[in-house]
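Late entry, evening session. Most of the bench is empty. Finally got around to the prediction I had been postponing all week. Sequence below, unchanged from the version circulated by S.P.
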Amino acid sequence: MKNLLVILLQITSLGISPLWSEPNNRELLRTEIIVERQFFNKHNASLHYQMDISYPLVRYPRPEVSHHVNLGLQSIMALAINDFRANLKRLSKEHDAGLSYLELDYKVVYQKNDILSIQFFKNTFYNGYKGVRKLVLTYNYDMKTQRLINLEDVFNEHLDANKQVIELLTEKTDVRKFNKEHVLSSFCLSDKGVTFVLDGFSQKGKETETKEVMLTWQELNGFLLDTPLLSRFSYGILINSN
């Protein structure tokens, strides 16, 4: 409860109302997930920064579930803004005044069968520093169990799946020294498979361009868990019908 109050205070301090109202007048299907784009921008002339923020508002037939999901999604936004402001304050002491900016956007990868999978794109530029820092964050949520989805919910831990995933990613990219913890936490799920998102923090000692690498369910079949979660994807339905 304490963490929820902290997030609510962060969101309110940004001048944003926590949006998790009841569904629209039209009746939602039992498992329908609706995602509505919200947007705001803020320009602060005295502190020399610009923020352009897009974030998702989720509607679901069970209001308590959409409430929890929206709180989690808006906490990602609040943490990104707070991190930007903290860095801005620190770096402003080292450089002359100049414009810095934060851009936060998202893409819905999957929103059916009670599963929501979203990518967030965080781009920051700080005055006095060369180039734009690009970071991709992912959010995977199971509406049925009301839990975040981790790779442990997909892969059989006894088969050293993480090592095999890194080997498959190495075969498909020119990256040789992955930041494993970061890469294995940046993924989205779909009917086709698991998409890992590589960004500027994915490779040790070298910045990489943002790219998506798909590992299909067929490629991962040897170390997948046989769970109700995977049966909700098209590949799982196909396997279970054989």
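Two things to note before I forget:
The two ends are 45 Å apart (CA to CA).
The beta strands are 34-44, 49-59, 100-112, 115-125, 133-142, 147-148, 187-189, 193-198, 211-216.
Will write this up properly tomorrow.
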